[in-house]
TrEMBL record:
Role noted for this protein: Involved in transcription antitermination. Required for transcription of ribosomal RNA (rRNA) genes. Binds specifically to the boxA antiterminator sequence of the ribosomal RNA (rrn) operons.
UniProt-recorded name of the protein: Transcription antitermination protein NusB
SUPFAM superfamilies: NusB-like
A biological process term (GO) from this entry: transcription antitermination
GO MF annotations, alphabetized: RNA binding
Native source organism of the sequence: Candidatus Methylobacter titanis
Record's keyword annotation contains Transmembrane helix: no
Domain NusB/RsmB/TIM44: 6-130
Record bears the keyword RNA-binding: yes
Gene name per UniProt: nusB
InterPro entries assigned: NusB-like_sf, NusB_fam, NusB_RsmB_TIM44
CC terms in the record's Gene Ontology section: cytosol
Domain of life per record: Bacteria
Protein family according to the UniProt entry: Belongs to the NusB family.
Amino acid sequence: MSQARTNARKAAVQALYQWQMAGQNLSEIERQFLEEERLKDAQKSYFIELFYGVPKNLIVIDQVLSEFVDRPVDMIDPVERAILRIGVYELLHRLDMPYRVVLNEGINLAKFFGADGSHKYVNGILDKVAQQKRAVEIKAKGAR
């Protein structure tokens, strides 16, 4: 797993958090991140994919999340919500990325940004989403 891609995810969590809280224009937030050199050590193309991909697919992402969370998606802690939305986006749209990588990255983001114990919540939700959306991949891995 490349550190540049991990850094892109970290930046995407921050940018999506900002978007969720302030409702700013996406390109305005992206411009701020570029100007402040917050993407210096990040894979910019992956940041762009996540940062624009999540809002573009938000209805589907939140529908998937709502099947597995214990409250309305809007009521999830905003940091956890950004992390979960990135994880669901990757599980649905980045089939080239093993589901375990998506889960591990989500857990690490929650440990880095979230409250104590939020990594357990993120892991539990993303694992349930993966069981449903990546069932073929999980079954294939278990068959070895």
